[in-house]
Design a protein that fits this description.
six-stranded parallel sheet; alpha/beta; three-stranded antiparallel sheet; 6 helices; binds 6-phosphogluconic acid; single chain
Length: about 230
């Protein structure tokens, strides 16, 4: 592919490899946190799940960030017991939150162990009080989903702040996710996309297919070379 153009994107940043992307994005996150703290006193950031962001979170641990004034939320969560290794908050705690001086009361996990509907109702009340977010970090699945907003799933059409998800094609089937409106209302949206597995979805989005990830408007897409369609 000569040049990748993603509709709705604010910018694309192509990185040599996943490590270089993680390092660059962690520095950009630190910059956004500092800017938000200067402007509003605190930074409200929603972390992404999955595996791609892990390196970025590890890099973030070493950057000069005043975590006392950072509030962490989650883009989505899997409906599994607290502490389950497959939960997104388990991964983010292991890679980042247990290594930085963030007050425990600043970590706002999604109570996904309650099940999709109860968790979404509770988290929706919290998000209603704090929106808009300063930064939403997002991954993209091989089918073009983002957070837990999957192609053809009713959750994608919801106007709610937070939505319960059923029958997700990526296990587990039950999840909780920020709604598209909350993602789009954030001041900053950063995608991290890495690996050959994402080529087809990026190609489809470049062709104009309305996949969930492409419905996030004005995002900065950080993509490593392996994910660039040929
Ligand atoms: C999840 C994530 C999901 C993830 C993408 C990409 O709970 O699975 O929120 O949206 O970001 O599926 O996952 P990878 O980074 O592992 O490819």
């Amino acid at each position: 592919m000569t040049e990748l153009i993603l509709p709705n994107a604010r910018a694309l940043v192509i990185h040599q490899d996943a490590d270089q992307m993680a390092s660059a994005v962690s520095q950009r996150i630190a910059q956004i946190i500092t800017q938000a703290q200067r402007a509003r006193g605190i930074c409200k950031i929603a972390l992404a799940g999955g595996s791609t962001p892990r390196r970025c979170y590890l890099d973030l641990c070493g950057l000069p960030i005043d975590w006392r004034y950072v509030h962490v939320y989650f883009g989505d969560e899997r409906c599994l017991p607290i502490g389950d290794l497959e939960r997104n908050d388990t991964m983010t705690t292991d890679a980042l939150l247990s290594h930085v001086a963030i007050p425990v009361e600043n970590i706002h996990t999604i109570p996904a162990e309650l099940g999709p509907e109860a968790a979404a109702a509770r988290y929706s009340q919290l998000i209603a009080q704090i929106k808009p977010l300063d930064l939403v970090l997002l991954g993209m699945g091989e089918d073009g989903h983002t957070a837990s907003l999957f192609p053809g799933n009713p959750a994608l059409q919801s106007i709610e702040n937070v939505v319960g998800v059923f029958n997700a094609p990526k296990p587990p089937p039950e999840r909780v996710t920020l709604g598209m409106a909350i993602l789009n209302a954030a001041h900053n949206k950063l995608f991290l996309v890495s690996g050959e597995g994402k080529r087809a979805a990026l190609k489809a989005i470049a062709r104009g297919e309305p996949l969930p990830a492409s419905e996030v408007r004005e995002a900065v897409w950080h993509i490593d070379r392996k994910a660039i369609p040929e």
